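By convention, each integer encodes one residue's backbone shape. The lines below illustrate.
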Amino acid sequence: MAIEDILRALEEKAEVNIETIRSEAGQRVKEIMADVEGEAARTRRLRLKKVEDMIASEATSIVYSTSLKAKKELIKAQEETVEEAFRVAEERLKGFHADERYAGAFEVLLDECLEYISGEVVLQVRGDDRALVEKIMADRQTPYRVSDTPLDASGGLIASSADGEVTVLNTFESRLEKAWNKLRLEMSNSLFGA
């Protein structure tokens, strides 16, 4: 065989080897590209999932925050309504001393005070109630005196023992203040439900 034939045979073999290498390289490139595209798709899905989770979390946070704000506004409105009801009650109590039922209510308040005090009682009443308290106490067997300092209240009285050890506040305002928390809860439940 001649050198030219050998060279030609080697060239043909080299071209077949080059073509095989190119074919294998092309196949390998396709495999690598498929892997890269698969990894890119997986990365996109993970990023998308992460963004969706962040959006869902933010949406939940916004809903919770809005719900909490709405509840606070509702509670505020309920409190304002109950406070208004108490303001109206206070206004009505200021004029109750002119009502014909006042004397009976005053007597009940006085009797409650007398249950806590023994011996001489010092009674502090509104100036307008001095005659009323003297009339009611005339029927009692309890020694008493009426304070020279008039009571600054819309009605009721303050009773003290002579030594000042025991004092009973039984004014309309003190009764309303004592009842405030209990009545506020009852009114809120009555007006707005549990």
Remarks:
- Residues 1-94 form one domain.
